């Protein structure tokens, strides 16, 4: 008793048998010649697989999985039929003749399955290439659609940077213009303090009171100097922060420009690869067609 094999591989036979056997197996049916046994099981199964393949192809846009499953099923069935034929041949008188005929039938069916498998593989490669091309086209379209927005954002960033630089220059000019006034105010303050000390001396302020007044004056001067130093340090710190922000913005601008250049480079490389892939696929298809023509001529 020969059991049906479970393998799903697609073997390839080197011999195609006679023209009569090849013509008979083109429709997917397995024949029994002069060995006295004619089985309709293989033909019915092949027809069923073909019908299932056609139905699945109509229900799906490509139907690659269903077609592959049908080819696998036909391969398993061909192997099973060959096992049955081989088993039955050992009960015949002309064993070797029967085995040769069974082997020819099996190889003829193998050749047909192999031809359909190559066609299916080529269609799958073409579909994948088309899908990649569509995705690349969609990505390019998206990049092109986003280009005005990126350009507007870059222009806005540049305008904001220029506005900050202009405001910084205005602030510096204003501080420079106010410097003489601040110096004049400081000199006036010193003169008032000196006049106050003279007035106290004329009013006969005691030395202890004058010392206390002087100490209070010195303390006020020290506090004023401390506040002045703090104001200068804060001004220097703010100036340093403005410089750092300007440098950070410049680095971001350079990074954005480099990113755009990298994106353009990758897009060009992807386009070149896609073009090379299409050329390779076209060459492979031409070679496959030539091989098929040669095989047909040989048959």
Topology at a glance:
Layout: H1 19-25, H2 41-59, H3 64-89, H4 95-202, H5 207-298
How does this structure look, described?
- By secondary structure, the chain is mainly α.
- It is 84% helix and 0% strand.
- The protein contains five helices and no strands.
- The protein has helices at residues 19-25, 41-59, 64-89, 95-202, 207-298.
- Helix 2 (41-59) runs antiparallel to helix 3 (64-89).
- The longest helix has 108 residues, at 95-202.
- It is rod-shaped.
- Mean pLDDT is 78; it is low at 1-61.
What is this entry, summarized?
By secondary structure, the chain is mainly alpha-helical. The protein has 5 helices and no strands.
What descriptive keywords fit this protein?
mainly alpha; disordered N terminus; single chain; 299 residues; 84% helix
Share of β-strand residues: under 5%
Q: Report low-confidence residues grouped into runs of 5 or more.
A: 1-61
**SSE pattern, N- to C-terminal:** HHHHH
Mean pLDDT: 78
End-to-end Cα distance: 35 Å
């Amino acid at each position: 008793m020969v059991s049906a094999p479970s393998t799903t591989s697609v073997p390839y036979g080197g011999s195609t048998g006679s023209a009569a056997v090849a013509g008979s197996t083109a429709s997917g049916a397995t024949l029994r010649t002069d060995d006295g046994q004619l089985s309709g099981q293989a033909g019915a199964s092949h027809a069923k697989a073909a019908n299932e393949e056609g139905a699945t192809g109509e229900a799906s846009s490509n139907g690659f999985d269903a077609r592959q499953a049908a080819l696998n099923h036909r391969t398993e069935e061909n192997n099973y039929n060959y096992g049955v034929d081989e088993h039955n041949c050992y009960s015949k008188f002309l064993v070797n003749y029967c085995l040769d005929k069974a082997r020819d039938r099996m190889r003829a069916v193998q050749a047909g399955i192999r031809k359909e498998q190559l066609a299916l593989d080529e269609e799958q490669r073409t579909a994948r290439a088309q899908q990649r091309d569509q995705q690349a086209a969609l990505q390019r379209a998206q990049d092109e659609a986003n280009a005005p927005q990126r350009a507007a954002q870059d222009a806005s960033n540049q305008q904001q940077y220029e506005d900050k630089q202009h405001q910084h220059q205005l602030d510096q000019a204003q501080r420079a213009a106010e410097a003489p006034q601040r110096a004049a105010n400081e000199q006036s303050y010193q003169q008032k303090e000196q006049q106050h000390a003279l007035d106290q001396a004329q009013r006969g302020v005691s030395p202890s009171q004058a010392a206390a007044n002087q100490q209070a004056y010195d303390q006020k001067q020290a506090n004023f100097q401390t506040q002045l130093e703090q104001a200068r340090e804060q001004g220097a710190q703010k100036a340093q922060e403005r410089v750092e922000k300007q440098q950070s913005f410049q680095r971001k601008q350079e990074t954005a420009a480099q990113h755009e250049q990298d994106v353009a480079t990758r897009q060009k490389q992807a386009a070149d690869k896609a073009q090379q892939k299409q050329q390779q696929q076209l060459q492979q298809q031409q070679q496959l067609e030539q091989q098929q023509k040669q095989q047909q001529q040989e048959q």
